[in-house]
Design brief:
With 309 residues, the protein is mostly helical. The chain has two domains: 69 residues, no CATH class; 217 residues, no CATH class. The chain has twelve helices and no strands. Helix 8 runs antiparallel to helix 10. The two termini are 50 Å apart.
Length: 309
Amino acid sequence: MKQASRLALHRVPLDSFQRGHMAYRQSIADLAYARMRFPDHPVVGQLEGLLARAHSVIYQARRAKRRDWLRFWRVTWPELVRQEVRTIAAATLLFLAAAVLGGLLTVQHAQLERFFISNDMREAMRRGDLWTEGITRMAPLATSAIATNNISVTLTCWALGVTFGLGTVWVLVMNGLMLGAIFAGCWRMGMHGPLAEFVVGHGALELPAIWIASAAGLVLGRAMVFPGRYPRSVEMRLAARRSVQLAAGTIPMLLVAAAVEGFVSPSQIPGGAKAAVGLALAVLWLLYILLSRGSDPQAAEPSRSGSLT
């Protein structure tokens, strides 16, 4: 009790918390016995007061943590996205520029395809099939694998921000080049339409998630390169908190995108329906970002570092 009052509950040693929780449960039984056998004894009142304090420390802290978690999704994360919109725009433009470059280079130099499109993928396209056909037969397993891969790529974009942002830029550029080259290769083989139908549903969330996580990495890099008016160590701590929160918010986006990619994108439903799914997801996401408002000192704290844009 004294430790929990002096420290934040999550900083109390685990063994101390476990002993305290066991003592709390035992004291409840003792209080019931005391009320039955010695209802007028002063110890009963003392024990009631002690248990009331213990209950407040143990259970109200849990409720506060749940409220903080809900507040993160309702207020903090959308506010962070709005505050870092310039950094997100920079990451998006870098990715799209790399995609255009990859497409143009592949159109002009067809031999570049082999760096991005495997022999099996080319054979499938020659038969008039996409390499994604097999996903439909094992959608649940594929969804899990897709989510794991997308989260891994996205978190890599974020984590490489510690390389002064250079690693984040590298991953963004390489993924953009790959996407552009694949689309160009499919265009040469007349498969650009099926590929667009496959991507449009889940890409509406998957690509923005990658751009946002990359922006989170650039937030770290920005604090390292342009520390602003505070010492670099202080700027890094401030940027690290914002960066972690910004990247964490992309996880639900990637999970939803993986479900769409596993079940909707490879299905035989019309391309227009897939486009409608992608459009609906994009609109709902934008409404969530734009309309989720509230007073949150953590999210409302302005970035003190310089801007890369």
